[in-house]
Specification:
heterodimer; A: about 525 residues; alpha/beta; Rossmann fold; globular; B: Pyruvate-ferredoxin Oxidoreductase, domain 3; 7 helices
């Protein structure tokens, strides 16, 4: 199974009661696996999508409060959105087992950055688990729930794209039942008034040495001795596989410390530091462990890794990078011919966004360029040829607020382009800001009735966009719904022009279902019809 | 036995189906498997790649090292060239000759095919036409898979059974068409392979 699926199966088998998430590559398949599981359906396990990662994290915390095991899943940048409840959940602690899965994306296959979620775990002072393969991913979930319940603390599980989207066989363990509903022993545990929070924080700090002890004895941290002490290798998570790829017989001459659980096991590292002349740190993501071992001044033991150039500073690891870092000869096949050009993703033929962008471009053609702020979704592809229609893509919801800021600066009109699901994720609050100040912005909410880019998940905006906009205070006559089709082009251009001229908040909703999701729906319908008739 | 395979194509061309068939056949023989996929944005008509590794021994890395792939199986000729650094000196490049031209700067197809012919071990076939003859151009991926089967060192029946298992739920007609496409690819490979 996929690494994502192994995590989901591990959670189901370990007595999960609810999974909370907003879709985001490469984490989406964890929740989808639970949604497609008969076992989850029969046992009433919660698996409906949340509006965003913050609401997901909070709902998971609430389920944990009620004594049941909960999981919140998100991509790395989703943890930024959920940071407030995440960091504070370390202070409140958990009741039922609570695991937060953050899926990092080194090399930015599908993301705006390659931030390393281990920093968030360290920041919140909670234990972190990082699997090296699908079996460990499966096993770690049960282990993580147990750890969480033992110390009544949330546990962060950090994976990367390669772990999430790679398949391998997994052996399942026993299936255990869900927890019964039970309240925390202290009903003030979750009340973070300063007086209580101070005590909870001291409690968290005092647990730190226990967390280190747990890491020393963890089945996921192993010290494998080697005869050649000229170098020790400290390897985190998936990077272990790249190391072992370079030793087909499985015998590494150097001592190896395989890390799968944090905080780092101090004794094990001390042993390596005493035994070896230098330590090579191999970790996917930021050089977090390397920096810790090296210290700011870099005095003392020689530490090699991403910071001294032994391994490239950015990007995903691979077996070749590790081979070179070990001083082995690099391997190479054939060069890529010069004629090979990139093939970026693009909007599908028949996509409603194409019609929206064509109309928007025409409506804006008489104004100076550079006034369209956009967001995260398929429609971000509108930045590329042939549309070149948008000028920003930063974080979920930023289109509306950046358009507002630019309008405040005097760029009038400013335009925001956001998707339906992104709007309910994080666009609504920004729209409220704009309404409050009657900012002269025109917001296009491209409503394709789904969360398209991650594969067509349900959108929380479905059927209620106009109501939400009215409720936030957008004037009725400035909420315009259009149907993005070629035949309505002139009409849409005119509506956009009218709203651009309005000195207040306008919302235009081009509404037409995603072409891929229609196709999928029709195929499902046909399939059901066939099963009915056969 | 151990085979490291790069599967390449454009989002929507069905490289994951090829991977699923080979993977299923490998697991049926009790082999180990690791398969890395691309999900997300690239599936919207961008380049996609999958690293498929099968072996009777345990597999370490999810990614195939450069210069170590036994096979590149490509459903699109330009995409077949993108992963050449992975191909082993003894490795085979198997590609469809039918371009999928969805970018404004697609190079001259003759130059692309010429570059493929420059690889010592290559097999180029017009998978789209062959798939059309089998019943639908959608089966082009199965033609390519068929052409790759002689290099997999696997009993062809195992591959056929895997196709049956994976396409069974799509109805008899679709299954039969895919099997015809698969066999056509295999026949082609036996007639034309030479290194």
């Amino acid at each position: 199974m996929l690494g994502d699926e192994a995590i989901a199966q591990g959670a189901l088998d370990a007595g999960l009661s609810g999974i909370y998430a907003y879709p985001g590559t490469p984490s989406t398949e964890i929740t989808e696996f639970v949604q497609n599981s008969n076992y989850a359906r029969e046992h009433g396990i919660h698996c409906t999508w949340s509006a965003n990662e913050k609401t997901a994290m909070e709902a998971a915390l609430g389920m944990s409060y009620a004594g049941k095991r909960a999981m919140a899943c998100m991509k790395h940048v989703g943890l930024n959105v959920a940071a407030d409840p995440f960091v504070n959940s370390a202070i409140t602690g958990a009741n039922g087992g609570l695991i937060v899965v953050a899926a990092d994306d080194p090399s930015m296959h599908s993301s705006q950055n390659e931030q390393d979620s281990r920093f968030f775990g360290k920041f919140a002072l909670i234990p972190i688990l990082e699997p090296s393969n699908q079996q460990e991913a499966y096993d770690m979930v049960r282990y993580g729930f147990d750890l969480s319940e033992k110390y009544i603390v949330p546990v962060l599980m950090r994976i990367t794209t390669r772990m999430a989207h790679s398949r391998a066989g997994v052996v399942r363990g026993e299936v255990r039942p869900q927890n019964e509903l039970h309240l925390p022993a202290d009903l003030r545990q979750f009340v973070l008034l300063p007086n209580i929070a101070k005590k909870r924080y001291k409690n968290l700090l005092s647990n730190h040495r226990h967390f280190i002890q747990e890491s020393e004895g963890s089945p996921f941290n192993t010290y494998i001795d080697g005869h050649d002490k000229s170098k020790g290798i400290l390897v985190c998570g998936l990077a272990y596989n790249y190391l072992m790829e370079n030793y087909p017989d499985g015998k590494v001459p150097y001592p190896v410390l395989k890390i799968g659980q944090y905080p780092l096991p101090k004794n094990m590292i001390e042993r390596m530091a005493e035994d070896c002349d230098e330590i090579l740190v191999v970790e996917d993501g930021y050089p977090m462990v390397e920096e810790l071992l090296k210290g700011y001044l870099g005095i003392g033991l020689k530490i090699k890794g991403r910071l001294d150039g032994t391994i490239p500073r950015d990007g995903e690891l691979n077996p070749n990078i590790v081979a070179v870092a070990l001083g082995m000869e690099d391997t190479f096949g054939f060069p890529v011919p010069d004629l090979v050009v990139g093939r970026p993703p693009k909007l599908c033929a028949g996509c409603p966004h194409i019609d929206s962008y064509n109309a928007l471009n025409e409506a804006l053609s008489t104004l100076p360029k550079g006034r369209v702020f956009s967001d995260i979704g398929c429609y971000t592809l509108g930045a590329l040829y042939p549309y070149e229609a948008i000028n920003s893509c930063v974080d979920m919801g930023a289109s509306i607020t950046m358009a507002k800021g630019a309008a405040d600066a005097g760029m009038i009109p400013s335009v925001a382009v956001i998707g339906d699901s992104t709007f309910t994720h994080s666009g609504m609050t920004g729209l409220l800001d704009a309404v409050t100040e009657k900012s002269p912005i025109t917001v296009l909410i491209l409503d394709n009735a789904t969360t398209a880019m991650t594969g067509g998940q349900d959108s929380a905006a479905m059927g209620r966009l106009e109501e939400i906009c009215r409720g936030l205070g957008v004037e009725e006559e400035h909420i315009r719904v259009v149907r993005p089709l070629k035949k309505f082009h002139a009409e849409i251009v005119q509506i956009i022009e009218e709203e651009l001229a309005y000195q207040g908040v306008s919302v235009i909703i081009p509404r037409r279902e995603c072409i891929v999701s229609i196709d999928k729906r029709m195929r499902d319908k046909f399939k059901n019809k066939q099963t009915e008739t056969s | 036995m151990k085979k490291d395979i790069i599967l390449a194509g454009v989002g929507g061309q069905g490289i994951l189906s090829i991977a699923a068939v080979i993977g299923y056949a490998a697991l049926e023989q009790g082999m180990f498997l690791k398969q890395s996929e691309v999900h997300g944005m690239s599936q919207r008509g961008g380049d996609v790649v999958s690293n498929l590794r099968i072996s009777h021994n345990e597999i370490a890395s999810d990614l195939i090292p450069f210069g170590k792939a036994d096979l590149i199986i490509a459903v699109e000729p330009l995409e077949s060239l993108r992963y050449l650094p992975h191909l082993a000196r003894h490795g085979w490049l198997i590609s469809s000759s039918t371009p999928l031209n969805n970018i404004p700067n697609y190079p001259e197809i003759e130059e692309v095919l010429e570059a493929i012919r420059g690889i010592p071990n290559h097999l180029l076939l017009d998978a789209e036409t062959m798939a059309k003859e089998a019943g639908s151009i959608k089966a082009a991926n199965m033609v390519i898979l068929g052409a790759a089967t002689p290099f997999l060192e696997m009993d062809f029946h195992l591959i056929e059974n895997a196709v049956r298992f994976l396409f069974n739920k799509k109805g008899e007609k679709v299954l039969e068409m895919n099997l015809i496409a698969l066999r056509a690819g295999k026949e082609f490979a036996y007639l034309h392979q030479r290194s």
